[in-house]
Amino acid sequence: MLNLKGITVTLLCVLVCKFSNASDAYVRTVHQEGQGILRPIGESCFLYTPAHVVTKSQGVLVETRLRKNLRGELINTYPQDLALVKLDDSSACQESSWKDGGERVEAIISVISSGRMNYKHQQGRTEVYDVEITDKAVDSTFSLKLKDGKKFRKGMSGSIVTVGDYPIGMLLSVEGDTGTVLRMDTMADLSRRVILRYATDKERIELGDLSNRESQVSNTEANTKPLLKTNGPAPSIQNTSNEFKGSLSEGMSVDHVFLARGNTAYRITSEPQRDKVQYTLGIFDDAGNELFSTRRTWSDKKLDWGVGVTQPGEYILRVSGARGAGKYQFTMNTLATPEELISNSNIIGTNDTFSGGLSNGTVAEYKFLARGNTAYRITSEPQREKVQYSLGIFDDAGNELFSTRRTWSDKQLDWGVGVTQPGEYTLKIYGTSGAGRYQFTMNTLATPEELNSNSNIIGTNETFSGGLSDGTVAEYKFLARGNTAYRIMSEPQRDKVQYSLGIFDDAGNELFSTRRTWSDKELDWGVGVTQSGEYSLKIYGTSGAGQYKFKLNTIATPEELVSNSNIVGVKDAIAGALASGTFAEYKMVVEGNTAYHIVSEPQRDKVQYSASIHDESGNELFKTRRKWSNKKIDWGIGFPKSGTYILRINGTNGAGMYHFKLLEK
């Protein structure tokens, strides 16, 4: 390890650094200048900066926000061109932009292709550059290019690259128009061994270092805390191991104290005893409240009890004798620690599998990043070591968006769920009974580009398909030239999802909608519009996850429905297609004071309609009730005077054919 003393590091942080994610430090030596990021650990403050900036100089000099020079010690360098400097003044880290060691980097760069690079000038001015992230498959580094024709300049080495307010890497070098960035999680991994030396106990736990850590307190520590009252002899307190044993008789209770560091899942198992006693177990918090309890059990029988707590503190396992007298023996195993259940590193990447241990009363949390309207399918891998659980999806404000029923982990689960807004979401797994393992895979069924891309255009008589889940929506545009009748039909799918359809005008007003339907069922929906313009067809996922497939057929055009050539005379027959929301018009030239009747020819391909007669001024003279086109009608009408009248047939439900004839009585 290098241990070069006498390096002076001065940091610059103007007032804007609380509001923008600039690099924390501007570093200048005789030979180089660059940037860096600060990290507080324990009572110390560390600076990460490119090794080539600091290793060839005996001193580094820049000015801080307070015009104060800070001295530092070069602690170590790494082959990845990374240097770690420990500052003498730990207060410099008050302005640190370090976040959780980069645990979210993998999930972020798997879905994000753009970010910002933050460059701090010696004088304190900050410049922010929009960047395109490339070559993301590399484990320890990724590449980037500056957008908008911007160029790299001297002194940018060490600049911090962010997505939103989250730092994902530090610029190391530039070749041509491409920069190489060292990932934040790699920086944290490389320096972990050194950092742990300066970390507090709490920080060591957060960093996943469990060495010299016991889940239970010592006898001395336990006896400094008051125990719950017991009946019978003094309790036997086993705290130096996970094994609890002793003697018990009817009416007697024994308390065992254990210490939990937070959200921890336990499995308590029994060893059958020859000398049997009937007992119950209970878990109590330090205020004496009972959290969990078992039924009465004999000590010559096996017990497998899954239980856990979510808050750090001291708890009591109480063994109460119910009948007889004898020996008991229990082993309390930690199935999952707080670091495993709710770690910041619990990130779900694209099409990722994640697993762990869980027990009744505990919860596991995982973060995932959505770029917008995205459909997911969460499936389970059945486990032999089972636990009952339920799942919930939460937004970044903590609001529950979706949840499942209680399910056992030895059963399969296929849960379709999705979100419409970009951002960070949380998947919570709640243990509700027992203790065991879970394993899930979260697949992306449809991306924002697939669900609501500008290229989602439906042409004439076109078929369109895709993936959908509960909570997501697919949107397609289609262009109508005026009064047009459509028939939307489904192709049944094996991989089913429940959905509803809606038609919207260009102002966002909903014109028509369907009931909820499963995609493995046929759909025949007749609908139409009367005005020319752009319309949207939205497909709403309402349950499950799967595929949809539809065809939008034009069954009647404006020319067919309202053409000037639509003229009907006596004994003429008229026929055509119609859909809900559209209408057909025909001009009738009739004699005055003459009785007529309009008769229908029943059709197999039916549509619901109403018919009306209007004068040339548009005044309605006669109107029928709603009728189905597969039924006969004989509608008698008369006109007070000769002239031209309009017969209008209004589609009110479905889509199909009509057939009428005008006759004199």
Low-confidence stretches: 1-21, 212-241
Helical segment tally?
8
Q: Average pLDDT across residues? A: 86
Radius of gyration: 37 Å
Intertermini distance: 111 Å
Alpha-beta content class:
mainly beta
**Largest β-sheet summary:** 9 strands, mixed
**Strand runs, count:** 45
Task: Give the % helix.
Answer: under 10%
* 3D shape: flat
What share of residues are in beta strands?
Answer: over 45%
What can you see in these coordinates?
This protein starts with a strand and ends with a strand. It has 8 helices and 45 strands. It is mainly β and 665 residues long. Mean pLDDT is 86; it is low at 1-21 and 212-241. The strands form 6 sheets. Strands 37, 38, 39, 40, 41, 42, 43, 44 and 45 form a 9-stranded mixed beta sheet that branches. Strands 13, 14, 15, 16, 17, 18, 19 and 20 form an 8-stranded antiparallel beta sheet that branches. Strands 21, 22, 23, 24, 25, 26, 27 and 28 form an 8-stranded antiparallel beta sheet that branches. The protein is flat, with a radius of gyration of 37 Å.
Topology:
Layout: E1 4-8, E2 25-28, E3 33-41, E4 44-50, H1 51-54, E5 71-78, E6 82-87, H2 105-109, E7 114-120, E8 126-134, E9 141-146, E10 160-163, E11 166-175, E12 178-183, H3 184-198, H4 201-206, H5 219-223, E13 243-249, E14 253-260, E15 264-270, E16 277-284, E17 290-293, E18 297-298, E19 304-309, E20 313-336, H6 338-341, E21 352-359, E22 363-370, E23 374-380, E24 387-394, E25 400-403, E26 407-408, E27 414-419, E28 423-446, H7 448-451, E29 462-469, E30 473-480, E31 484-490, E32 497-504, E33 510-513, E34 517-518, E35 524-529, E36 533-556, H8 558-561, E37 567-568, E38 573-579, E39 583-590, E40 594-600, E41 607-614, E42 620-623, E43 627-628, E44 634-639, E45 643-664
